[in-house]
What does this fold into?
Amino acid sequence: MKADRQISERLIGLLPPRHRDPAATRVELDIAEISAMVGGLIRQGRPLPVVLTTLCQLFDATVKGYSSSVLLLDRTGARVRSVAGSGLPASYMKRLEGTAAAPGLKVHEVSPILSLTGEPLGIFAVYQREGNPDATRCHSALISQFIQVASAAIERMRSDEALKRSAALLERTQQLSSTCCFSWRVETDEISWSKELGQLFELDAAYVPMTLELIGARIHSEDLPSFREMIERARSGVSDFEFEHRLRLPDNSIKYLRVVAHGTRDQEGRLEYICAVQDVTHRRRTEEALVKLRSELARVAEIASLGVLTAAIAHEVNQPLAGIVTNASTCRRMLAVDPPDVEGARETARRTIRDAERASEVIKRLRALFCQKGATSESLDLNEAICEVVALSLSELERNKVIVRTELAGELPRVRGDRVQLQQVILNLFLNASDAMSGVDDRPRQLVIRTERDEKDRVRLSVRDTGVGFEPQGADRLFDAFYTTKSSGMGIGLSVSRSIIESHNGRLWATPNDGPGATFSFSIPYGPQDVTVGATGARSLGVIRTSGVTNAEKRRVGGL
Amino acid sequence: MVERPLVSVVDDDESVRESLPDLLRELGYSARAFSSADEFLASDCVAETRCLILDITMPGMSGPDLQQELTVRGQGIPIVFITAQADETVRPRSLEQGAVECLFKPFSDTALFEALNAAFE
It folds into this structure.
């Protein structure tokens, strides 16, 4: 290890320069031996105070008539953490901090123990014992050699400690985040991996050398082509990559893994990837369950809105049917009189045909709706889509005495998305607004539908009502499934609407009005992007398409 | 010539306004059509109208609103409601509130004739 090398280099440098200093010849123990002994204690894993006390004992044995001590500082260098020493009274050791020397001891030299970078690690103190006739001379050079051994020992212990801590932290982090690591040397295909990864792959890391083939054998056959392609891309030297794939384990169970790799090159330019592998099975399963739940919700929402739509369809069809029956009755009566009113009969027959055509137009619109397969992404004019929904829901809104005002922006950029899904959201907002106003009698029940360009690349629709509104703190709950303030509602419309808008990369939100009521808005981006419209609300009975209807027809159908 | 009693039609649906007066004339009444309650109230036909064929769902003032307004004004005209809403609860509610009849579109000439006879009883 690098730290080992550094320390041994430093210890070699500590060899006493005997040939230069005659005093050093009196040293009974070679400083190199002292270093080796201290190093041995460290390798045995002895605690730092024990190591330092031994060092002090060695000092005392080397220099007669002196005692030494080490005051170890904490990492801040501001506080004494522990005291190591030899030949000093225990009571004195305990009270060492800043006190005067004990009786019979004279402070000889006090020096800081510094790290390689010059940070204070501790204090090395040497005391002269009074009245020792055999006292040798104590050279500063010798003291500084001991200090260097002490410094090396403290630093080595500290780096060991830090390494252990970071290894423990890494292991704990890996456990917490269900992440494992491996590295892959591209040139040799050599793979080193953690034992957790072995557990994930259900391979015994101790016995099996990991290879790409072995990994490949565990990968779900459907994901194998993309896995191989990814390996080839990695070989060509992309710096970072990430991908997701499934594992098929021996018991046929499936795991979802997410791999994040970071490419590095050593001094010779050889490529190595450090990869983190995360088991995301639980998350995927949850997402799958969520998607399923959402589509079930959407289905329920469809059924719930079916009642409203059936009424709307019946209304649309019954109007022209009434014309047909009335005209045909009149026609028959005109022909039954004597003389028959042929001109009048011809006119009523013409009207009968026209009303029948109108009824057939409604049916065509219905068919267009039922033929809608899955979610589609088309370029559409939001204003136009809104007008169609207004036309369809107007009878329902009028029945609820709602006054509709539209403030549609001219020159609104076209958006991409699923027309029927978006119209389902719009219809839902209209009906919610209408419901919110159903109990309002002291003010007009007004519904303002507004479109505008939103922040740079978005268009916004807001639906403002004068209904009961909501408490500001309830704004988030509004979009929760099964949250409802209505006695007859199921509370899924807004939740489904929000997921539809989110699948269009948009946002749906609600704000209370300054006055009575609430405003629901969504904004979706315009531009050439493609949206991935999910299963949510797909094939919904959202809104009858009225694309083939003329303006005059729209006016009559919807009063627009 | 005998004065034919006036039957007024108030409906926002154009094809009804077009077809119904002709049928009413065939049935022996004189007929006028209006596209909204306001238009009817503003006309000079209110006092003269012997029977009102009234659409329930209209923008602005609805059929029942007009019924209430006429009651307030003391002009008790017999009313036959017509509606394209397929809501079965509408009929009993209308009859309870004093309507002669409530017809669901599309209705036959016989049903209309019977409703008018009831109105003129």
